[in-house]
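Forwarding the complex inputs:
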Amino acid sequence: MFRRRAAATAARREALANDVLTYLEPLYATALRLTRQRADAEDLVQDTYVKALRFADKFEPGTNLRAWLYTILHNTWRNRQRDAARAGVNVDSEVVEQEGTRPGGPAAFDTPERILLRSSIDADLQAALDGLPEVFRQAVWLRDVEEFTYAEIAEMLEIPPGTVMSRIARGRKLLFERLSHVEDAESPRSELAGRRR
Amino acid sequence: MSSCRDTLDQLPGYVDDAVPPESRAAIARHLSQCPGCRREEEAQRGGAAVLRQRATMLKNAPAPPGLHTRCRAAMLSRPSPSSARRWIGVLVPTALAAVLIVATAVALFKVATERSSTVLAAELTADHLKCFRFFATGTTKSADPARIEAMLRAKYGFAVHVPPSSEAEGLRLDGARKCTYADGPIPHVMYQAHGQNISLFILEGVSRPGADVTTFGHRARIWTRGRNTYVLVSSAAAGTLTDVVGYVQRETQ
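Prediction (whole assembly, two chains):
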């Protein structure tokens, strides 16, 4: 009896491990966006998986396993940053929330179609995305690249849905402004500094 | 009519079709009359469109080959409330591997000058058991040989051809590691065939006579091709092993 139950538990753990590992590639890509360092991204993913198994009984079967894993990933990342901040490393916070709030912007945007046709689009987009303040980058990444719902993102980032929306708004706008003015490459933070063409 | 503030607050949801119909109509009315908010809308649609169009490229950051194995091992090695059986599962192969290593060391001592095929087979059988016990990926997906080759080259400097999975042989490529053979590190490529673990070891720049050795319940086939010696180790049936050897020989021609 005891042995049978132990075997069943082991089998369940094994099954869950196999299920969650199918998301290894997208989790790693997201972790790399957060940490920007391969070794840190690998550690973050591994920690996420260990926690997923440890809290396996908190997962409700039938709900979205992928969203649950991303929630653990972002929780783990926040905890690490908190530890880093306590250790004296500065983490950007309130200041950036205000960036990109100004309405208006450049006189004209380029069109998405034209931007997508540029030969340098991939490099430009990576640079623009990496240049966004972290809170905006996270929000647009989860929405437009990973296609999570607003409610799922609110849970992952532990912020109200209204804040999710405003972060996405600011992230998309800053990104699009930068892509519309890639020729400003020598001063990539010009929009943030309030410079207008 | 909605104010600019209300409109801007809900614009991302509006662009994504994620606002309730009544808000939607109010926002649309406001947008039709407010050029400033229309420009904001343009930026929202533009940013979202570019990200979605290039999402596949952005997400393309292949995880390092060893990460799957590491994560799996980290997940399943956590002690669970009833871990007695797990410990037995760990200790028995560990003890067996230790016995093999000691036996190999004794044999090595006796054959100090030239390492016989039996010693080579015993040593690599110990590695076979150890690696599959501790580093098995547990995956059911076949690994990408190009990525494994790139990993072996980048991490350890091995320039070897890794034969891919073969449906015809029922062979699945699982992963690769570095193992230490007496003369230095060698690549250890791990496969599955018909539920059995199969190891392929490649000794670069080594030439030695072919042999077919049975040791510790495992078969080892040793052959030299080009400038490398290959050793295949498994407890699979002799027929399976012969098929896999044939396949690997064709692949490494």
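The first helix of chain A runs from residue 2 to 21.
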